[in-house]
Amino acid sequence: MARKDEKNVEKGQEKKPKNTKYTRGIPVAYSNIKDKKLKSRIKKTESRFQDAAEKAEKLEMILPEEVGYLEAEGMEKTYNFRQEELAKNVDINTSKKIFNLDLKDFGPYSIDYTRNGRNLLIGGKKGHIAAFDWQTGKLGFELHVKETVRDVHWLHNETLLAAAQKKYVYIYDNRGLEIHRLKNHIEVNKLDFLPYHYLLASVGNAGYLKYQDTSTGQLVAEHRTKLGACHVMAQNPHNAVMHLGHGNGTVTLWSPSMTTPLVKMLCHKGPVQALAVDRGGNYMATSGLDGQLKIWDIRKYGVVQEYYTPTPASSLSISQMGLLAVGWGPHVSIWKDAFKTKQQSPYMVHHQPSSAVHDVHFVPYDDVLGLGHGKGISSMVVPGAGEPNYDSLEANVFQTKKQRQEMEVHSLLDKLQPHMITLDPTVVGKMDRASKDVISKERQEEYDEAHPKGPIQLRNKARGKNSSLKRFLRKKQHNVVDQRKLDAMAKLEKEKLIRVKRARGEVEEGEKPFTALDIFAGKKAKTN
């Protein structure tokens, strides 16, 4: 069967895979391609895709969990299900994940979860900061800084956190003690952290994007956006590129090694209110003050879908399984398969009475959505949102203190450098070999003019007679000997010329006649 399938692919026929879940589209018919190199490259690529799909299908058999979604019967719709009804029909552990924290005095609240989804960090705009294990209800710390808190964010794990306060950015530990005050980050509106690079990114009213290395304490980069104050920022988990939303409706993509944006996109007719990027780095969701919600394909920088929200969306979040949460006014809408096809109705909806939603975040590796609003914190169950099978080497949900310490050490040893952040992370580590078959005729002409003798041939390093030092000394010695020969020949020529003049009787005044005895005496004739 395998040989028959390979023949079908070579003839250009469509091969029907056993499981279309992991396939990457219809195989390319490369039998009619005349270019041999292109044909072989496509053939190898298709074989890799086929092997990857087969391995993923085999691996699926040993995965313990599967994704489960809400399913409605008959004419019923899934968006009609309320959290109260779900709490009555699920197990006790899942029902405990549906809760509300009434904190009316210090809102609206910004929230953030750790990478393993275990700990929750909240920050009220009026100065309230707290961190706790939201699954067990164990409080880590709680404090009031008595000034404005614009945003909060965890660092590499639950032991350190950053808070963007009225003027500076402060770093606290898991007991609420102030560790650092970052004076270079002034009037910050948004914070984000790159876990593989140990970089804390911030942007604020001054319009500067700054990267702070939390392992060494150095300010890695400081870029001026030249687009005014910025209130929207999100990172691309695939390549660690920062996406900034500006007041003129544009979204810019930044890396620490470039002082200008990598990409500049005009996304909305009004200021950008929120944006989010999916885990694969292929799609981006943006919302603007014009009431539009747009889905973008970052690979081609084009619009895929467009939606309209009655109130401009204030917050967006994309789950690990591709669900899109949109917070607009007191409402939250969750969309399923929003990046694939145009959706007519949402997957789930939630209403927070008399309280505008300020921040939404999906919990990693769990079917839970956290809401930060004007009256506190809320948590709702969204079936099918989280990744059911986690990698304990990446983010361990049940890690102990010892495992956390070991993971912290390994992550520091494997830390990536800031200059490795690029739009295409696959180019890192590759060699750019310019060949005559690839480069254009103009580049080939420029290369030939710059290298008239052909390409430089590298020689092996020699340690004996042909070493660079030996060659230099030999060349220098030869030059000295040649100069001595030239000087001696010049003297002989001058003496010969004087003898000829004296033989003709053309001896100048003041000169003594030259005789044969002068040669043996070693006397020098006068020369003017």
TrEMBL record:
WD repeat start and end residues: 265-306
GO biological process, one term: maturation of SSU-rRNA from tricistronic rRNA transcript (SSU-rRNA, 5.8S rRNA, LSU-rRNA)
Localization terms from the record: Nucleus, Nucleolus
Domain named BING4 C-terminal: residues: 346-425
Comp. bias intervals (Basic and acidic residues): 1-17
Pfam families linked: BING4CT, WD40
Top-level taxon of the source organism: Eukaryota
Region (Disordered): 1-24
Main location class: nucleus
PROSITE patterns: WD_REPEATS_1 (PS00678), WD_REPEATS_2 (PS50082), WD_REPEATS_REGION (PS50294)
SMART domains: BING4CT (SM01033), WD40 (SM00320)
Listed InterPro entries: BING4_C_dom, WD40/YVTN_repeat-like_dom_sf, WD40_repeat_CS, WD40_repeat_dom_sf, WD40_rpt, WDR46/Utp7
GO CC annotation: 90S preribosome; small-subunit processome
Record keywords, A-Z: Nucleus, Repeat, rRNA processing, WD repeat
Function statement: Involved in nucleolar processing of pre-18S ribosomal RNA.
Protein name: U three protein 7
